[in-house]
């Protein structure tokens, strides 16, 4: 990992971890993300509050199929 990388891409950073281990990983990740553009790909909605912006998902879409 580059020490001063301006952009981080995190792909499923907590996959396979139990909730205790995931919390232990998330705290250092938040420090690492500070001051950097971060793209986080995850299915874990508990990580969503760490995001400044979140693209809409199919389940949050206001449109429905006819």
Automatic annotation (TrEMBL):
Native organism: Streptomyces aurantiogriseus
Full protein name: ABC transporter domain-containing protein
Region (Disordered) residue spans: 44-66
GO molecular function (one): ABC-type oligopeptide transporter activity
Origin superkingdom: Bacteria
Low complexity bias locations: 57-66
InterPro entries in alphabetical order: P-loop_NTPase, Type_1_exporter
Gene3D superfamilies named among the record's database cross-references: P-loop containing nucleotide triphosphate hydrolases
Organismal lineage: Bacteria, Bacillati, Actinomycetota, Actinomycetes, Kitasatosporales
PANTHER family per record: ATP-BINDING CASSETTE SUB-FAMILY B MEMBER 10, MITOCHONDRIAL, ATP-DEPENDENT PERMEASE MDL1, MITOCHONDRIAL
């Amino acid at each position: 990992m580059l020490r001063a990388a301006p952009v981080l891409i995190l792909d499923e950073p907590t996959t396979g971890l139990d909730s205790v281990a995931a919390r232990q990983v998330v705290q250092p990740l938040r420090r690492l993300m500070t001051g950097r553009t971060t793209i986080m790909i995850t299915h874990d909605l508990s990580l969503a509050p760490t995001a400044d912006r979140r693209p809409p998902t199919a389940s949050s879409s206001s449109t429905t199929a006819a």
